[in-house]
Specification:
With 291 residues, the chain is an all-alpha fold. The protein is 81% helix and 0% strand. The longest helix has 54 residues.
Length: 291
Amino acid sequence: MGKLCKTLRKMSGFNRQHYVYERALISLCYLDDLWIKYFFFIQHQLNDINYLRGLWPKYQHFFSNLNAEIVYFFIDLEEQHSGTADSVKEYYDFMLEKREDLIETHIRSAQFEIRNNNFEKAMDIYKKALNIFASDSSALVYILNLYSTLLLQNGQMDKVWGLYKDYEVIAFTNKGYLLQLATLFRHHRNYFEEKLEDIVRIFEKALSNFNVETHSQDFEVTLNTLIQLVNEGSSNPELRRHVQERKFKFKNLLETDRAYVKFFKEEAENNVDRNAESAEYESIKKNQRVE
């Protein structure tokens, strides 16, 4: 210990800190936080891109399940300094292989490809992400939004509609899907007007599957969105009449469910009161017997 202290005293501020980090990483090489601090230290104190690049394979050697923050640190580093897409792409491909469980991996990789005008590659990344996150409705809605935006920018309207049709089951568990579908209709009415009956069917199936007791607010938002869509976008009197009939049906369902919830809540509260009164009565009787 004394020898180490003497060594440190002889060093300048940077060399001393660098030496301590290097020593610490020998025995604590599996601590992500230590590596992160070390990388930031080198970046701010030494600002040597090539030295930092040399640390990347050292870090990889110790970790099979890589820390995304560290990989994105190197991605940002390359994007700021290298100026070449290939050097950055290597990290994105690495992340897609090693950390496909992170939605950010797919989003950032697709956005990188879009920045470099590789639209087909970005679409492939989104397609793969839809399969990977098939059981996560929130992630699917987010990816659908980004993927459909890219398709729209490339004039592929039919693919956008096909995409939402393929994943319409999400509507049963996530109102975000329905709101995105409504936004698409409003922004691209000329295309989607002939699809309105299909859109109404998707909304109605979603409303029929809502748990009104626990999602009454989502139910009302969805129902009102459906009514607005038809009023704004359809001149078909039969469709308007159909939706108005469904509106009354769903409104009655909502009020009935709320009445049931209120009834059972009051019953539960009354039972608590009755149980408390019964317990108090039994306690009084017990005390009288003791006396």
